[in-house]
Amino acid sequence: MRMHGDRRWALVGTALMLVGGAVACGGTGGTSDTGDTGGRGEGASATASATGAVASPRPSGPRFDEEIELSDGRRVGMSYVAGRGLVERHRGAGAGVWSAPHVVYATVTDRCQSLTLKEFGGTVAVIANWGDYCYDGEPPMESIAAVGVGDLSRWDTKLTEEFDGWEKVVAVDDVRELVFSEASTEYLTRLRWSRTAGFAEVEEIPR
To answer: How many angstroms separate the most distant Cα atoms in the chain?
Structure first.
């Protein structure tokens, strides 16, 4: 009987050694019942750095082709959206919520590369272009001049077709009027916008 007792205690000791080795190697580690994944599990809302500090995830906002901050702290962003056209969103100074997407100009034509946003005393001017293979360097077929005022809920737009596109926009008469222009060797092409009358007709002035 003593031989069987010694054998039993030897087997118990061996089992204890195996369990201790498994714990030391992390064989029973992982997530606990409380859901603490250490930032490594699927669906973790925070990540752990090499020093052990936990960093909160950064909120993701909309991405734009062009975005500006206005003098009063508001922000305006615009994007070329395939199949829709030119889409605008804005938010108040210090606000984290952007307005719902608003189509300033609808078109299914391919976009060009450039997109210009400029502010003049709270008035936002936009230059955008579209055309077949325009992104690869071909001249635009659709050129838009757009102006937003006030709360930016409404935008004035002017389409010019078969045109090389507006090069710049400047303010005159204390920002009550904007002038879009494009210069070639033969002509100065000009488009005026005013707060009272909106867009005028395109002018071509021989040089």
So the answer is: 120
Mean pLDDT of 137-151: 95
Integer Cα distance of 28 and 19 in angstroms = 10
CA 147 – CA 156 distance, rounded (Å): 5
Please give the model's pTM, rounded to 2 decimal places: 0.71
pLDDT at residue 54, rounded to an integer: 54
The token duo for 178 is 């904007």
DSSP β-bridge partners for residue 130: 111, 142
CA dihedral 111, 109, 61, 89 (to 10 degrees): 110
Structure confidence at residue 88 (pLDDT): 98
The radius of gyration computed from the CA coordinates of the chain, to the nearest angstrom, equals 32
Residue with more model confidence, 163 or 37 = 163
- Are 106 and 115 contacting, i.e. CB atoms less than 8 angstroms apart? no
The position carrying tokens 């699927």 is 42
Long-range pairs, 172-175, Cβ under 8 A, ≥24: 175/120, 175/121, 175/123
In angstroms, rounded to a whole number, what is the distance separating the alpha carbons of residues 147 and 171?
Answer: 12
* CA 34/CA 10 separation, integer angstroms: 38
